[in-house]
TrEMBL record:
Family per similarity comment: Belongs to the binding-protein-dependent transport system permease family. OppBC subfamily.
Residue ranges of the TM segments: 28-49, 98-121, 133-154, 160-180, 222-240, 260-282
Stored PROSITE patterns: ABC_TM1
Name of the protein in question: Peptide ABC transporter permease SapC
Gene3D superfamilies listed in its UniProt record: MetI-like
Alphabetical UniProt keywords: Cell inner membrane, Cell membrane, Membrane, Transmembrane, Transmembrane helix, Transport
Record localization: Cell inner membrane; Cell membrane
Alphabetical list of InterPro entries matching this protein: BP-dependent_transpt_permease, MetI-like, MetI-like_sf, OppC_N
Gene: sapC
Pfam families to which the protein is assigned, alphabetical: BPD_transp_1, OppC_N
């Protein structure tokens, strides 16, 4: 009787619970998750967190950060060559670089996953044609494709978002198409079809849970690529235009000051590096946790 009660009270964890437990046990992944949460809060509340107007001169020109002997506590990260507060510009710039990157990745994932799933569940001429088109598009680096689109449409925030969106969609389509196509060919799918399961049931209950690792990898990779592409286009002068405090544009505008005022170059560069690093840490942690939960 006692053994039966123990058996009844023992709860077998679900795949999602096992994955979350594995993720929590990964200290690097949890560190990345907390940093990513902090970065997200900063991005959402940037307008209320900036101590000064990010577009106006509030201090002396090229004032060093507060930890320098000639710096001031009022301007923690110092000022740029126009006397604008660096901290305020970095906080507001998180929206233009990190925030837009997440937005573009979500939009690209939505379209790319939908097309990839439809193509992976079908066969014949349509899938073959899509495969050849993707091979052609993916042979062009995403940044180069974005530069081509921006060069045609002109610089600006909306244009670079559209350019990066168009460059990321083929990556999602190819990854999802390949994963779904490989999964459909497996024996358990064939057996489920013989039992009368329709495509929607197979997709929701069998295929998507088994390709969750692929989706997670592609989404986090897309955010990293979008951050770097937005910053690169801003650095080249094709992205957000002055006086917008986009991190890549800040880096490009201050590159000639690297010896005179190195903080004006180092701080935006560190912001870009930090955002890409935490996204990759979370993505790798999710991949390992999902794989361990499936095993």
């Amino acid at each position: 009787m006692l053994s039966n009660n123990i058996y009844q009270e023992t709860k077998i964890p679900t795949q999602r619970e096992r994955a979350w437990q594995n993720f929590k046990n990964n200290s690097l992944a949890m560190f990345g998750l907390w940093c990513l949460a902090l970065l997200s809060v900063i991005t959402l509340l940037a307008s209320w967190l900036t101590p000064y107007d990010a577009f106006s001169q509030v201090g002396e020109l090229l004032m060093p950060p507060s930890w320098d002997t000639t710096g001031k506590v009022e301007y923690f990260f110092g000022t740029d060559d126009l006397g604008r507060d660096m901290l305020s510009r970095l906080l507001l710039g998180s929206r233009l670089t990190f925030g837009y990157a997440v937005l573009v990745a979500i939009c690209s994932a939505t379209i790319g996953i939908l097309i990839g799933v439809l193509a992976g569940m079908t066969r014949g001429l349509k899938s073959s044609f899509l495969n050849h088109v993707l091979d052609t598009v993916l042979s062009i680096p995403s940044l180069l494709l974005a530069i081509i689109v921006v060069a045609y449409m002109g610089p600006g925030e909306i244009n670079i978002l559209l350019a990066i969106w168009l460059a990321l969609i083929p990556r999602f389509i190819r990854a999802v198409y390949t994963a779904v196509h490989n999964e459909v060919e497996k024996d358990y799918i064939m057996a489920a079809r013989l039992d009368g399961a329709n495509n929607f049931y197979l997709l929701y209950n069998s295929i998507l849970p088994n390709i969750l690792t692929v989706l997670t990898n592609e989404f986090t990779r897309a955010i990293s690529i979008a951050i770097l592409d937005i910053a690169a286009l801003g650095f080249l002068g094709l992205g957000a235009q002055a006086p917008m405090p986009e991190w890549g544009a800040m880096l490009g505008d201050s590159i000639e000051l690297i010896y005179l005022a190195p903080w004006t170059v180092t701080l935006p560069g560190l912001a870009i590096t930090f955002s890409v690093l935490v996204v990759n840490l979370v993505g790798e942690g999710l991949r390992q946790a999902i794989n361990a939960g499936i095993d």
